[in-house]
Amino acid sequence: MPLIGNLSDIYGRKVMLTFPMTFGILPLVILACSRTKYFFYTYYVLKTVIAMFTEGSVQFLALAYVADNVPESRRVSVFGIMSGIASASFVFGNFSTRFLSTSAAFQVAASMAVISLVYMRVFLPESMMNNSICAKNTETTCLLEKAPTKKWQLFKNLPSVDDTICLLRTSSTFSKAASVAFFVTVADVGAGASLNYYLKAQFHFNKDEFADLMIIAGIAGSISLLILMPVLTPLLGEEKMLSIGLFFGCANMVLYGIAWAPWVPYAAAMISVVATFAMPCLRSIASKQIGPNEQGKAQGCITGICSFANIVSPLAFSPLTALFLSDSAPFHFPGFSIMCSGFAAMVAFIQSTMIRATNPPTSCSIDNSNSEEP
Predict the structure, then answer these.
(1) What is the C-alpha to C-alpha distance for residues 205 and 213, in angstroms, rounded to an integer?
(2) Coil, strand, or helix at residue 52?
């Protein structure tokens, strides 16, 4: 993801958006044609390979595009609106499957993917980012352009690991935001990986009830991000909104973990009204620490950290869920794995309270003995 972000900083957001959106159509077309065994295996292999290079890139490139064209004072509200639109589209897609056959669902999905690509290419203007070295009057100091580069590089225009490390070392606020992103993703993915098994074992939920929970959470999140967040953020500030969102996200997981009746998960899903504040605020805080021609690298770095958390979390929580839902559990607590997810969210909340109002970062300190000015 930092690699794709770096290329978008060089060649433009629209160019880099074209590749994941184009390749993302192919697996959907395969299932739209047929869902027999060999078509499915082809879909699965192709989807896996494409996801290795493009998973999450459309979302963070869209955020980098917004950061290019929206001033810092309005950025968090626009990030929230974008997340709200994504949440609303999730609700619409989930709800529409109740009225579509399996074959029609994949055909509609492939058609929508084609329409979105054509719309992006025809109507979306290229980002107004500035690829020159930052001037003194820019809102935020460019971090990597102030750091000397090594004389020898394998690929001159591609980012190295040093770029990501420099971003994390140079700005303490950015490094804290990256840490919060890791723990909140561990918590969210851990709870998501465990919740369906837990609710089925504890309250005998079926697929329709799972869909109802997702729709309730999606509607609550859409209302929150599209209506409440633009109003509250100017009053409270994005740092406080981040902490509020993480606190209620933790409360949401704890309530799921100790659910004592079938109606409790529905009540917990309503807490998404507040819990959805966290990620847009986090992305906005990170974007304000970075210069105008480093937004792709920064958002790609955050997405890469979240992707790593997506690997770590199921490896930890899936066996834990299986253990505490089995007859050989150390003690009777079916929701223990979800409670542990809540603890991870609490760690993210505690770290978020250490993030203060954004200050201009200092340049990255790198040894000059074997380097030259960029």
Answers:
(1) 10
(2) helix
